[in-house]
Design brief:
single chain, 0% strand, mainly alpha, rod-shaped, 42 residues
Length: 42
């Protein structure tokens, strides 16, 4: 039981890390796009 729980938490942690990385990439690209839009606006 404990072993399964540990494996599950490791899997969850890696999934969580992956989703966090995706969020960071999306936020970075959004910020870059906004900067480009601002540059074009000026």
């Amino acid at each position: 039981m404990h072993k399964v729980k540990k494996r599950f938490s490791e899997k969850y942690r890696s999934q969580h890390f992956f989703s966090t990385q995706i969020k960071i990439i999306i936020i970075d690209s959004l910020i870059c796009n906004q900067t480009v839009v601002l540059v074009y606006a000026f």
